[in-house]
Backbone:
């Protein structure tokens, strides 16, 4: 089996160190099966997550972004996720005007003991992204670009990404 | 003209105690105004106000922090002053606000579109109550003011300066409409249509940062993350995605702070409708936090604070 399944999509997860990252770990220790499309980035706190991290990921070609932190009132730093909640909610509501499908971004709260909930969140979100399919690129290739690439491939030079 | 005379005498009274007073004067031709920095009484003769005085002069306030200066503001500009004061970016005691009661300013792109040919150098403009008479190359064209009014003025809820040490003119009524047809039309489009729109529009962007520099709330100046190398938020690549990313930086840094003065869109040399993004964000802020930036003193921007129980944020079912 190839290391990278061609049907996999790129989902970026920003997880807080204290709850959701622990929750994902619990899910792993408990051997709960879950889709493998998610690439996890561990951050100290959901309050560390600048909404621009999410926008940057989406514009750079991520098919989905999942943010998860401690449940409100359970923040390790007392109030980080309260700020995060406001920022993330605003981003979620703002995305539609940019033409990026707001369903490609989700935020939620998972605690370190909620391995099963983590499994549920990842599975649901991955299914949703698979239903939406690969995200349209913000920098579309023109027909000229595609033709040049096809010509290059026909001449046996391969494409730039695979040599 | 009495409004202008009142303003001049009000400025003359306070000029002695101030470093300068920021107003407007005629620009390179009769159709354009430009900011005027009044330091002496002689400068006062060049002062103009009216529908051509489009600039939001609150943009200059942070550059003068620590000095006592005066500023002439329209209703919309006064919101920027309030927001700057609320965020401690300027000291209220250091500024003298000359507030105007404004009956709307023009949109230069709309004038350009309404004139038969590219105006080039405009010789004279006569401003009536409902119309503008513009003389170009010996020909006079009459435009209805309502046709060339800036978008923000069509939905203006604060025509009179909210904060003012001296309020000049007779109070105007707020506009009846509270939403713009162009905004509603755009929001009704599908995601794919909006994406195609921004791809096309952002490919025009030359990343001159005029929108940022004209913005009264963009106060980072030399420390803007858009131009920092470390961290490198934006590459020099001038692709639609990078240009869009810059707009996202601007919008997100102004979330809950934007006073909708429209300076970004006005400053844009390639006429990108940036206010579509700003107005949409402000609508969300109003929906979630019941907050409108710069409408009252002693407000805290919603993202600077939080509530333990948010009435209007409901976790989505998982």
Residues:
């Amino acid at each position: 089996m190839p290391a990278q399944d061609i049907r996999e999509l790129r989902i970026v997860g920003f997880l807080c160190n204290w709850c959701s990252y622990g929750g994902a770990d619990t899910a792993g220790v408990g051997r709960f099966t879950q889709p493998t499309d998610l690439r996890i980035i561990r951050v100290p706190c959901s309050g560390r997550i600048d909404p621009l991290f999410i926008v940057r990921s989406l514009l750079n070609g991520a098919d989905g972004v999942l943010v998860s932190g401690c449940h409100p009132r359970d923040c390790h730093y007392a109030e980080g996720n309260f700020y995060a909640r406001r920022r993330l909610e605003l981003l979620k509501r703002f995305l539609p005007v940019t033409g990026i499908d707001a369903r490609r971004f989700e935020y939620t709260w998972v605690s370190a003991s909620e391995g099963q909930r983590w499994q549920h969140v990842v599975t649901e979100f991955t299914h949703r992204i698979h239903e939406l399919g690969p995200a349209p690129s913000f920098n579309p290739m023109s027909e000229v670009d595609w033709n040049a690439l096809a010509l290059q491939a026909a001449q046996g030079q391969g494409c730039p990404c695979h040599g | 003209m009495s409004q202008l005379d009142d303003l001049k005498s009000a400025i003359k009274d306070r000029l002695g105690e101030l470093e300068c007073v920021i107003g407007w004067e005629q620009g390179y031709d009769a159709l354009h105004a430009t900011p005027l920095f009044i330091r002496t009484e002689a400068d006062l003769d060049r002062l103009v106000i009216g529908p051509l005085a489009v600039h939001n002069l609150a943009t200059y306030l942070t550059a003068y922090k620590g000095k006592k200066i005066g500023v002439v503001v329209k209703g919309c500009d006064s919101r920027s002053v309030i927001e700057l004061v609320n965020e401690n970016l300027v000291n209220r005691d250091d500024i003298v606000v000359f507030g105007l009661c404004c009956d709307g300013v023009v949109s230069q792109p709309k004038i350009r579109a309404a004139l038969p040919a590219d105006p080039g150098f405009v010789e004279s403009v006569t401003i009536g109550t409902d119309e503008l008479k513009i003389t170009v190359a010996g020909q006079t064209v009459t435009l209805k003011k309502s046709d060339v009014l800036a978008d923000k003025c069509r939905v203006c809820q604060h025509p009179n300066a909210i904060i003012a040490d001296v309020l000049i003119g007779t109070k105007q009524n707020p506009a009846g409409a509270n939403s713009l047809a162009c905004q509603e039309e755009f929001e009704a489009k599908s995601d794919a249509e909006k994406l195609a729109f921004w791809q096309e529009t952002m490919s025009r962007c030359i990343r001159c940062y005029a929108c940022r520099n004209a913005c009264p709330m963009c106060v980072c100046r030399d420390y803007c993350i858009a131009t920092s190398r470390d961290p490198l938020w934006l590459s020099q690549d001038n692709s639609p995605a990078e240009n869009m990313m810059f707009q996202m930086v601007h919008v997100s840094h102004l979330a809950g702070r934007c006073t909708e003065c429209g300076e970004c869109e006005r400053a844009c040399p390639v006429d990108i409708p940036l206010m579509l993004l700003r107005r949409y964000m402000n609508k969300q802020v109003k929906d979630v936090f019941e907050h409108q930036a710069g409408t009252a003193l002693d407000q805290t921007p919603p993202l600077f604070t939080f509530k333990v129980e948010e009435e209007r944020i409901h976790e989505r079912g998982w």
About this structure: The first helix of chain A runs from residue 20 to 29. Chain A touches chain B at residues 50-52, 55-56, 59-60, 72-73, 79, 82-83, 85-87, 89-91, 93-94, 96-101, 106, 108-109, 117, 120-121, 124, 136-140 (CB under 8 Å). The first strand of chain A starts at residue 11 and ends at 16.
